[in-house]
Amino acid sequence: MGVLNEEVVDLHVSTVRELNSALHKAHDGEHWRVTNPGGAHNVAVGIDSEIDVVIDGHVGYFAAGMHQKGTVTIEGSAGTGLAENMMSGRVHVKGNASQSAGATAHGGLLVIDGTTGARCGISMKGVDIVVGGNVGHMSAFMAQAGRLVICGDAGDSLGDSIYETRIYLKGQARSLGSDCIEKPMREEHLAELAELLAAAGRTESPSEFRRYGSARTLYHFHSENSSAY
Amino acid sequence: MTDRALRESATFDRATIRGIQRAAETGIYHIRGAGAKRALPHFDDLLFLGASMSRYPLEGYRERCDTDVTLGARHASKPIHLDIPITIAGMSFGALSANAKEALGRGASAVGTSTTTGDGGMTPEERGHSKTLVYQYLPSRYGMNPDAIRAADAIEIVLGQGAKPGGGGMLLGQKVTERVAGMRTLPVGIDQRSAARHPDWTGPDDLTIKIAELRELTDWEKPIFVKIGASRPYYDTQLAVKAGADVVVLDGMQGGTAATQDVFIEHVGIPTLAAIPPAVEALQGLGVHREVQLIVSGGIRTGADVAKALALGADAVSIGTAALIALGDNAPELEDEYQKLGSSAGFYDDWQAGRDPAGITTQDPELSARLDPIEGGRRLANYLRVLTLEAQTIARACGKSHVLNLEPEDLVALTIESAAMARVPLAGTSWIPGAGL
Questions:
Q1: Most A CBs within 10 Å: which of B176, B205, B217, B219, as the mutation test of the A interface?
Q2: Are B146 and A125 a contacting pair at CB < 8 A?
Q3: Which of A183, A172, A189 shows the shortest CA–CA distance to A216?
Q4: Smallest CA–CA separation between B224 and chain A, in Å?
Q5: ipTM
Q6: Which is the most buried residue in A1, A120, A137, B406, by most CB within 10 A?
Q7: In a domain, B345, yes or no
């Protein structure tokens, strides 16, 4: 389990405030382990260095929120707003994630081995998200940039009002949202999907996926489109 | 002409008729800038009583009347100290030119007060020229970068705006230039929509956790404001306090916007005057009045407005529209250009269109270059000084050694409506309509 020179913070003993304060002062290359997270909110928020953090259990809202540079691995499930607005680095959840996973995130790689709730990748702005299972309704709502890879199925209104995010879906979408359409899978898409799957440690083949994106019909407001809103 | 007995309909007046014609011609609702234009009960409907036999005034030019205010000491280890209780409201780079944002920073800093970012993130111009800068945390999270939050002096979580409580934002394509689009991670030239709801939390219980997250990010250093559009100020203020806000920002329906449907601006939300007493009542009921500060905005124009808002219980006010006017918006020297745009000085509200001849609400490089940020900053600083001097004049006349010592007891109302809303007596009576109900 342990890594040499690993710092351990037990959330039965320490507070989230003490944990985050210590992580904010950590130095590049350090290894940290958080034990007994007990579903606490705001665990590992605001990391801004090349550190490696492993969380032994479930976490609540906004785990690894606004994450930069380092790596966070959650050996459990995560609540609402996982890695919201992450900028860079990597966040990996071994279990499931609740709603709004990766919301508005600008960069980095978010991997969820399990399934997510509603609004996964809402307003994403450049992050790459790979979900091993399903995503809930309104995922990639108003998604602006980055890639969302879904190895399972998607709920209602996938990609509603989507901008330039590319969605790769292996299973079925219950429905597509306004302005979201299936698009052809070209060589460059197969290549970037292969990279994303490999980076997330997935074994699916890119050829099993379909691509979705914006029809770009709602980019300018016209009252003739009012039925789309 | 005088014999024709022309009678304009009160229901179908000329503006209404023109609105119907415009809708029929274009097929789209009217989008414009600024706030509510209709007549509303406002600060003009209140008067100060001034000192008399039972109250001693302060000497106007000898005795101090302080104006400083501290914001955010409830939970933040680094609260904000302002020299004057008048701040600059959140306005985005995108809606405004970079020169306008710089001018706002220069003007505010010159008199020791704060400016606020808007949708689209923080620009180096505004950070560099703003001594105290509040970072708006909006539903769209355009340009939202934790580094910007760390670089700010306070964080303002925006739930709503007085011009459009319950509405998101829009930035029409003509203002979405390469730089604006880049900051917001969007294609150049599209009509950019801003969400009305935050993407990762819903309701007051979630807000509690969101505030805690922002505190964790900033190691509990920075004050956290919660901005609400005035609709249910009593409950919204209570819930904001419960969620952990250090400061509540309350924006009434006269508050401006860069671009919103006219029907939204004129028909949603409540006037600033009506919003303050319920918010103050909520703070007092929770025992946190003055501990959690209340900043009021929406139609602040004069030092009298500032003094009246403070007397009703606000800790500070915020200005947006008035600040733009101070920079040069609607200047009469530009009349010829306003005419070419189908408007006139004193009426111009097409802030959404990006063709502002004053160089303020535009991203056009040539138009933007017309606004000298140094001169704009000087004008804004002048205006802020006048507001402060005016508020001090009134406070001294009421015998107050600090503008924050003004109180409802110093006020009376001119109309039954304003008496009921402001909860002060109708002038010459002891009647407060609705009191004791």
A1: B217
A2: no
A3: A183
A4: 16
A5: 0.96
A6: A120
A7: yes
DSSP secondary structure of B45-102 = GEEE----TTSPPPPTTTS--B--EEE-TTT-SS-EEESSSEEEPB--BTTB-HHHHH
pLDDT digits (tens, 9 = 90+) for B254-277: 999 999 999 999 999 999 999 999
Domain assignment present for residue B226? The answer is yes
Cα(B38)–Cα(B270) distance, integer angstroms: 12
Count of A-B CB contacts under 8 Å: 106
Whether the CB-CB separation of A17 and B220 falls below 8 Å is answered with yes
CA distances from B211 to A191, A200, A221, B157 (A): 41, 31, 34, 8
Q: Give the separation between CA A65 and CA A43, rounded to whole angstroms.
A: 8
The C-alpha atoms of residue B266 and residue B118 are separated, in whole angstroms, by 22
- Amino acid identity for residue A66 in this structure: M
Select the residue from A16, A62, A100 to test the B interface by mutation, using most B Cβ atoms within 10 A. A62
- Nearest chain A CA: its distance from B237 CA (Å): 24
Q: What is the CATH number of the domain that holds B80?
A: 3.20.20.70
Tell whether A34 lies on the interface with B, counting CB pairs under 8 A: no
Spell out which chain B residues touch chain A, with contact meaning CB-CB distance below 8 angstroms. Answer: 27-29, 140-142, 144-147, 149, 170, 172-173, 184-187, 190-191, 193, 195, 199-201, 206, 209-210, 212-213, 216-220
C-beta of residue B93 within 8 angstroms of C-beta of residue B110: no
Predicted confidence (pLDDT) per residue in B76-117, tens digit: 999 999 999 999 999 999 999 999 999 999 999 999 999 999
Lowest-confidence segment of B8-17, B86-95, B168-177, B333-342 by average pLDDT: B168-177
Question: What's the rounded Cα separation, in Å, for the pair B318 and A6?
Answer: 49
| Residue B429 CB neighbours (<10 A) | 10
Residue B430 covered by a domain: no
Report yes or no on B146 lying in a domain. yes
pLDDT of residue A221: 78
Of B374, B341, B283, B362, nearest in space to B98 by CA: B362
Q: Are B210 and B149 in contact (CB under 8 A)?
A: no
Which residues from A are below 8 Å from B217, CB to CB? 45-46, 65-66
Domain span at B136: 31-422
Instruction: Label each residue of A67-79 as H, E or C.
Output: CEEEEEEECCCEC
Query: Helix, strand or coil for residue B193?
Result: strand
Q: Which residues contact A190 (CB under 8 A, 6 or more apart)?
A: A206, A207
pTM, 2 dp: 0.96
Q: How many separate domains does chain B show?
A: 1
Taking the C-alpha atoms of residue A172 and residue A153, their distance in angstroms, rounded to an integer, is: 5
> What average pLDDT does chain B have?
95
pLDDT at B245 over 60: yes
**What topology is assigned to A6-202 in CATH?**
Pectate Lyase C-like (2.160.20)
